[in-house]
Design brief:
By secondary structure, the protein is an alpha/beta fold. It has one domain: P-loop containing nucleotide triphosphate hydrolases (Rossmann fold, 3-Layer(aba) Sandwich), CATH 3.40.50. Helices cover 31% and strands 24% of the residues. The strands form two sheets. The chain has an eight-stranded mixed sheet with strand order 6-7-8-3-9-10-12-11, with helices on both faces. Strand 9 and strand 10 form a beta hairpin. It is globular and about 70 Å long. The two termini are 37 Å apart.
C-alpha cells in the first residue's frame, strides 16, 4: 500500500449521556492511502459518521470519551494533538462533503462569496487570486456557466448543483483527505452517478484520499477500491471491494448483500435482517452480531478478532476462523 494518510488502530470511544456511558466504537481499524477511495458501510447507528468525525475531533468534547486506540492523520497523532492544531487541519488538510448540501451553505451569501471566503481562509492567495480561484473551482466540478452560478444563491440551484459547490469548497485547499458522508443519498440516480464520478476524478487528479460513507453497497461497489463494514461500532469485515462483495464471509455482510436489489443475485428474493440492533448502553459480551446470527455457536460468546483470510480480506467471525467452523 502506498503512503497512508489515515491510520486508525483499535479506536474505542463512548458517549456520556444522562449519567450513563454508551460504547459507540470498539477496536475500530481503518486505513486510507494517498489517492485511494475507501468505503465505510453499515446500517444506521453502526458508527460510520462517528468514525469519520473522530478523525478530525469534531465530536462534542463535553460528552465524548476516547477509551483506547489511536488516530494517525498524515503523520499527526490526532488524539494527542490540541484543539488549535486539529482545527488547522479542518478544511485545509481534511475536506468534508455531507448528505444535505443546504446545511453546508449559507443561504444569505452568493456561491462566489462563500467559495472566496473558504479559499482565503485556507490559503495565502491574494484577493484577486482567490477570486480567480473561485471560477476555477467551479469549473473543476463541471458546473456549467460558472460566471452565472458564482453570483447566485444556494436556493437558486438544484440539489446536484449545490452538492457540486460543496465539493468545490471541500477541494479548494487541495486536502489530503476528503470525507464524503452519504454525499448522494438525497439525489436522484442520474445525479448520484455524476457526483460519484466527480469524486473519483478529483481523487485521481489531486491524489486525494477519500473516505466514502454509505449504507448502500451498490454505491461502494461502483466507487471504492476497499471497503470496511461496521456493525454496532465494530469492524466485522474489511478488504478489497471485489473480494468482500463477491465472497462475503461475515454473516452480517452476507445479510446486507441479500437485502439490496443492486447487489443480490437476480434469482434470489430480497431478505431482511432478522432480530434487533443491540442496545449499546449494555454492549453484549462476545460477538456483537451473535444475537442475530444464524451461524452462531458456543465460541461466539467470546469476542472474535479481525483476522485475515487472505492478503486482501479480513473478517471478525469465529465460524470463519475456527477449525471446522461452527460444526
Amino acid at each position: 500500500m502506498s503512503s497512508l494518510i489515515v491510520d486508525i488502530q483499535d479506536l474505542s470511544l463512548s458517549f456520556q449521556t444522562d449519567g450513563s456511558e454508551v460504547s459507540i466504537l470498539k477496536n475500530v481499524k481503518l486505513q486510507i492511502a494517498t489517492g485511494e477511495i475507501v468505503g465505510l458501510v453499515g446500517e444506521s447507528g453502526s458508527g460510520k459518521s462517528v468514525t469519520a468525525l473522530a478523525i478530525s475531533k469534531l465530536l462534542p468534547e463535553e460528552i465524548t470519551r476516547f477509551t483506547g486506540g489511536s488516530i494517525n492523520f498524515d503523520g499527526t497523532d490526532i488524539l494527542k494533538s490540541d484543539e488549535a492544531s486539529v482545527a488547522e487541519l479542518r478544511g485545509k488538510r481534511i475536506g468534508f462533503v455531507f448528505q444535505e448540501p443546504m446545511t453546508a451553505l449559507n443561504p444569505t451569501m452568493t456561491i462566489g462569496n462563500q467559495l472566496f471566503h473558504v479559499i482565503r481562509r485556507h490559503s495565502t492567495l491574494s484577493k484577486d487570486e482567490a477570486r480567480a480561484r473561485v471560477r476555477k473551482s467551479l469549473e473543476e466540478v463541471l458546473i456549467f456557466k460558472p460566471e452565472i452560478v458564482e453570483n447566485q444563491y444556494p436556493f437558486q440551484l438544484s440539489g446536484g448543483m449545490r452538492q457540486r459547490v460543496v465539493i468545490a469548497m471541500a477541494m479548494s485547499a487541495n486536502p489530503a483527505l476528503l470525507i464524503a458522508d452519504e454525499p448522494t443519498t438525497a439525489l436522484d440516480v442520474t445525479v448520484q452517478a455524476e457526483i460519484l464520478s466527480l469524486i473519483e476524478r478529483l481523487a485521481k487528479d489531486h491524489g486525494t484520499a477519500v473516505l466514502l460513507i454509505s449504507h448502500d453497497l451498490g454505491v461502494i461497489a461502483k466507487t471504492c477500491s476497499r471497503v470496511t463494514v461496521l456493525y454496532a461500532g465494530e469492524v466485522v469485515e474489511s478488504g478489497n471491494v471485489a473480494d468482500v462483495l463477491k465472497n462475503p464471509r461475515h454473516p452480517y455482510t452476507q445479510a446486507l448483500i441479500r437485502s439490496l436489489p443492486d447487489i443480490a443475485a437476480r434469482d434470489r428474493s430480497l431478505e431482511t435482517i432478522t432480530g434487533e440492533f443491540p442496545d449499546l448502553r449494555n454492549r453484549p459480551d462476545g460477538c456483537i452480531y451473535a444475537p442475530r446470527c444464524p451461524k452462531k455457536f458456543e465460541k461466539c460468546s467470546q469476542s472474535p478478532l479481525l483476522l485475515g483470510i487472505n492478503q486482501l480480506h479480513a473478517v471478525a467471525c469465529w465460524a470463519e476462523h475456527s477449525v471446522g467452523g461452527g460444526a
